[in-house]
Amino acid sequence: MKSPIPSFLKKALLATALLSAGHAYAADTAGIVVYNAQHESLTKSWVEGFTQETGIPVTLRNGDDTEMGNQIVQEGADSPADVFLTENSPAMVLVDNAGLFAPVDKTTLEQVDSAYRPAHGKWLGIAARSTVFVYNPSKLSEAQLPKSIMDLAAPNWKGRWGASPGGADFQAIVAAMIEQKGEAATLEWLKAMKTNFSAYRGNSSVLKAVNAGQIDSGVIYHYYSFVDQAKTGENSKNTALHYFKHKDPGAFVSISGGGVLASSKHKEQAQAFLKWITGKDGQAILKDGKSFEYAVGKNAESNPKLVPLQQLDAPSVDASKLDSRKAVELMTQAGLL
Ligand SMILES: [Fe+2]
């Protein structure tokens, strides 16, 4: 009786099986998958530098904080992710609360200033960004500037400021406000915000609207303005930045996080990646590149165009407690989402 599988096909099948086994082996030893919610251009620079130095290939899967955080939680132990990088802390907290992070290597933790990493060491800061009040000086004089972000709830601010409530950036600011002021006060502020503010999609749109005189002011992160200034300045030339300082909730500095997944099968390489981006070369990319985010490494310098991080007088907020679900819940209750 003739075999149902012709011999040439048998050979082909065998070759395919060997090839895929080879692939599995290669993936096991030679590369990591990074779920990246940081700005793609910044992470790409990190990956290029890391791969060049270590020879370890990195596959990037890009998305936003909430989307990728939820995806990792859903995937659980089956997640293909070796490393998770975010724009803000709440998505790190989401994954951490699900118990999915492996402890970060001690030598890596020690590279980062203790103010920019949670004490438990399950993840750490890789960069930082400051909340800022952007305004159009032809609409608002310095004397009219708010002393606190909380002032923006007052009736005289009605119709005069904008924000991007749907984004993880603004939601991190809200999560920090909950930590500082409590749920009740934050909810009250959010309800007043709903009455007073104009909604935009993304911080860049807020900046653009302020620049164009469509709205007097807005709450964004600092780098949107610096990035635009470094290009043509066309979306920021009519704007100025006001830092709230004085440990105000509006002076919140948000920590971008990095962590290694407990389910990673390439932990050594994943840990090496975190070590590299928080080390001298990785942090220098923040100083010399075009991201304009703050460096968080010990003795690492940020771009000299920025107001130094130490001068921002940011509130001390425990990044490991920032609760995105609670922030979203209160924002939904206030009709913002
Ligand atoms: Fe951003």
From TrEMBL:
Q: Does the keyword Transcription regulation apply?
A: no
Q: Where is the signal peptide?
A: 1-26
Q: Which Gene3D superfamilies match?
A: Periplasmic binding protein-like II
The answer on whether this UniProt entry bears the keyword Ribonucleoprotein reads no
Q: Which InterPro entries match?
A: Ferric-bd, SBP_1_CS
Domain of life of the organism encoding this protein: Bacteria
Alphabetically ordered keywords of this record = Ion transport, Iron, Iron transport, Metal-binding, Signal, Transport
Family listed:
Belongs to the bacterial solute-binding protein 1 family.
Spell out the protein name for this chain. Iron ABC transporter substrate-binding protein
Q: Which organism is it from?
A: Pseudomonas umsongensis
What does the organism's lineage look like at the top?
A: Bacteria, Pseudomonadati, Pseudomonadota, Gammaproteobacteria, Pseudomonadales
